[in-house]
């Protein structure tokens, strides 16, 4: 098959260049919700449940995704996978290869349909890749590749599963409700790899945090409004807003902890997380190839969905000036700070484009909070520090969660492999070492953002 034209695919370098031009940034002076797809009731999540089905013309995509779920496809590198399971996976992949290459131009009229199409094709692609035996090269077939890359060009998203595909646009209501804001206990994820309650709990934990974070976004807006006034009364109001911000962040920490109530760490690490892997974390070090594209037309480095792609958490960093503080640390030396900032910046490329623009606008605030606090009175400084310390507590707890759900299981797996191979010592580069170092660096740069008296 001939390679498709360059304007029909997206590379991360192209995406990066789009973000760096005036075309990629809205020229607005306020954080207007309609400009940035941020709802005053649901924040970065859509105000209504996303569509659960594409229009009829694209039903073949929905059918193959339904098949993967209904047939319970297994990970290709699952220990003890049976020949029957392997055959079942291959029969499903054959159906994917036999799909027609559907035209996507009709989807472009609807942002919600484009999002749904990205979700369906990205989930299908991950089912396809990760059900392959680990010794089989990865070649994503053209019926998935070509429309996915065309859709990615429209959405300015990479061709891989993202946080928005698993959390922001992957929910519905358990029961119909007339309430303007979805209740935290009335949510249900639409699509799962494993069909387990553990996976459901994992996604819904993040969704509930996004909804609780709506108040934080409103406090940001109110603070910025008062900062423009700038008088003593405005400063007192900002101190009150920051005290409330600390309480909201503590609520986010409490919600994060609820993942332990229904998601088992071993189940998550061995059965759920492997489906998320991107090209940059393929355990067999395979490159991902995309049929219908020239070999140099697609990015080699693709990361799967991650909480690091949550616009809410990035917004807290930017608003409190933790982001700027980290950038300053990187400029004054310290490769660790530089790598941390680079990774967080790369994660923004996986966010919906309107949300990236929101963060850009927030970062461009001409009256940044941190500078305001540095020149303010002790009460304002104390309120700001309380919010920063709450964010640090959030990151402490996040480290504990990641330790339980990724680092410790990874070490157990590495230890077992070392024993099987009669290795002389633990395997290097395993056990989540780099992840632990990264999270601690982010936590430490948050703690260092406290303004001393």
Automatic annotation (TrEMBL):
InterPro entries: Indolamine_dOase, Trp/Indoleamine_2_3_dOase-like. One of its GO terms (biological process) is L-tryptophan catabolic process to kynurenine. Keywords: Heme, Iron, Metal-binding. Heme b binds at residue 398. GO terms for molecular function: heme binding; indoleamine 2,3-dioxygenase activity; metal ion binding. GO terms for cellular component: cytoplasm. It comes from the Eukaryota. Pfam families: IDO (PF01231). Belongs to the indoleamine 2,3-dioxygenase family. This is Indoleamine 2,3-dioxygenase. It comes from Mycena belliarum.
